[in-house]
Specification:
With about 525 residues, the chain is mainly alpha-helical. The protein contains 21 helices and ten strands. Bound molecules: protoporphyrin IX containing FE (HEM). It comes from Dorcoceras hygrometricum.
Length: about 525
């Protein structure tokens, strides 16, 4: 995701003239760059300008970045280069090349690129699972998250938290609908529900709704300041961004001040369990206090713990919420799919019992709807940015170690060469077994909403449970239809907001199901 999941750079477009003033000083860079890139056989790409490369073409195009990339595919094919100021981006959009890079040459393509200064501050100098270079720190942090935080047995322990969050979600929807002639906002409510689950898994302490809102608001503020700026691509311009740099420091401070009290509260609960009977018996945070990191003597500091907890919360909140928003939109657009799903729910759990996560495995149609959802609407259109650990080759081109290697996911999951009717939202393709796809990529790649290979999303299993469970509960309780403002129809336009959400946030009408 990195730079790619951001909004376009158009607000900075006026700075184009300022940038021109720097062209001269950038000439030295250009000469060095040219002599370096001459020796390299980089993938082709649209011709750019000196120093700034394709940066202003992208920013001035008026298109979202993913749209800009999508429009280049017919001309430049499955692997091409964009030069964004000092960054070289290599964009890969074919299943075969993704498989070759991330599975066959998985170890070489498993690292991350250098970060911009803002990200370095929030990642505590790459001390997170997602940002760390391929090496001992990544191994220690990832192993801890997968084996201690997100293992199957740990996931079971949080069943209660999931059930409570589902109850709260249904109540919130009922109350909102009652106050608004049946209308509810989908993304906001789904996001909140998953955030509650992740918060309780992360901190293991009780929180009232006000505190939950406060942490959520803070996380959103962090995402906003993480949006890339022009000086991330043209560091020469950084003197113009001192106000923004100050803001970054303030937000980081605010993040620490919001989360450290929760960390302290958990420490206290662990020290005095008899006084904190409502605290969970386990939390992700517990695994961080004395975590051993290969090659390091000290366990994580409080600011590092803040960063690791934020990663846990951020990784699963918007991604899952976005998935639910698109799922509901598709069910409104296709009432037959919605009825069929409801019929499956009724025939699996009956009318009096609420769907729980054990039922999900017995619902092949629900599973097919969710898989089709992740194919057609991968919540992030780019996987996180990769980098190679050593100079490499892909499709005969050079991949230098300082390049950002980006995987454009819809290029794969909507490829007409590997999918029939890829444009169509059609769960039937998976339900009937007409088409199949191994989501982990091990047996071959056809879609990769969670990435594949060594850096595959460690939250895959949990996230799949969350999406299935939430969707099943929402459909079990309510019949969903379009809002009268859109004449009952849904507008499927997209926009980038960390994840790719609906351009017009989905407002739906809900009607409780007759029991
Ligand atoms: C529907 C929900 C989710 C989607 C679509 C999703 C998608 C992704 C993608 C595309 C990547 C990048 C893989 C790569 O680098 O090639 C990723 C990485 C990651 N995800 Fe998720 N994710 C989801 C939920 C979660 C959850 C619930 C968590 C944890 C609580 C999580 C934590 C992470 C972490 C830590 C990484 C970095 C892994 C690494 O660099 O080794 N994600 N995810």
């Amino acid at each position: 995701m990195d730079s790619l999941s951001s909004s376009p750079l158009s607000p900075y477009y006026h700075l184009i003239f300022t940038a021109s003033a720097f062209l001269l000083s950038g000439l030295i860079f250009l000469v060095t760059y040219k002599s370096k890139s001459k020796k390299l056989n980089l993938p082709p790409g649209p011709p750019g300008w000196p120093v700034v490369g394709n940066l202003f073409q992208v920013a001035g195009s008026g298109k979202q970045f993913f749209q800009y990339v999508r429009d280049l595919l017919p001309e430049y094919g499955p692997i091409f280069t964009l030069r964004m100021g000092t960054r070289t981006m290599i964009i890969i959009s074919s299943a075969d090349l993704a498989y070759e890079a991330l599975i066959v040459k998985g170890q070489i393509f498993a690292s991350r690129p250098r970060e911009n200064p803002t990200r370095t501050i929030f990642s505590c100098n790459k001390f997170t699972v997602n940002a760390s270079l391929y090496g001992p720190v990544w191994r220690s942090l990832r192993r801890n998250m997968v084996q201690n935080g997100l293992s199957a047995s740990r996931l079971k322990e949080f069943r209660n938290a999931r059930e409570m969050a589902m109850e709260k979600l249904i109540d919130r929807l009922k109350n909102e609908a009652a106050a608004n002639d049946g209308a509810v906002w989908v993304l906001k409510n789904a996001r909140f529900a998953v955030f509650c689950i992740l918060l309780s898994m992360c901190f293991g302490v009780e929180m009232d709704e006000e505190m939950i809102e406060k942490v959520d608001q803070m996380m959103k503020t962090v995402l906003i300041v993480l949006d890339p700026r022009l000086d991330d691509y043209l560091p020469l311009l950084s003197p113009f961004f001192s106000k923004q740099r100050k803001r970054v420091q303030e937000v980081r401070q605010q993040q620490i001040e919001t989360l450290v009290p929760l960390i302290e509260k958990r420490r206290e609960a662990l020290r005095n369990p008899e006084k904190h009977k409502n605290a969970a018996s386990f939390s992700y945070l517990d695994t961080l206090f004395d975590l051993k990191i290969e090659g390091r003597k000290s366990s994580p500091s409080d600011p590092e713990i803040v960063t690791l907890c934020s990663e846990f919360l951020n990784g699963g909140t918007d991604t899952t919420g976005t998935g639910i928003e698109w799922a509901v939109a598709r069910l409104i657009e296709n009432p037959k799919i919605q009825s069929r799903l409801y019929e499956e729910i009724k025939s699996t759990v009956g009318v009096n019992k609420k769907v729980d996560e054990k039922d999900i495995e017995k619902m092949p149609y629900l599973n097919a709807v969710v898989k089709e959802l992740l194919r057609k609407h991968p919540p992030t259109y780019f996987s996180l940015t990769h980098a190679v650990t050593e100079p490499a080759k892909l499709a005969g081109y050079d991949i230098p170690t300082d390049a950002n290697v980006e995987f454009f996911l819809p290029g794969i999951s909507e490829d007409p060469n590997i999918w029939s009717d890829p444009e169509k939202f059609d769960p039937e393709r998976f339900f009937t077994g007409r088409e199949e796809a191994d989501i982990t990529g091990v047996k071959g790649v056809k879609m990769m909403p969670f990435g594949i290979g060594r850096r595959i999303c460690p939250g895959l299993s949990m996230a799949t449970v969350h999406v299935n469970l939430m969707l099943a509960r929402m459909v079990q309780e309510f019949e969903w239809s379009g809002h009268p403002d859109g004449n009952g129809k849904v507008d499927l336009s997209e926009k980038l907001e960390f994840t790719v959400v609906m351009k017009n946030s989905l407002r739906a009408i809900i009607k409780p199901r007759a029991q």
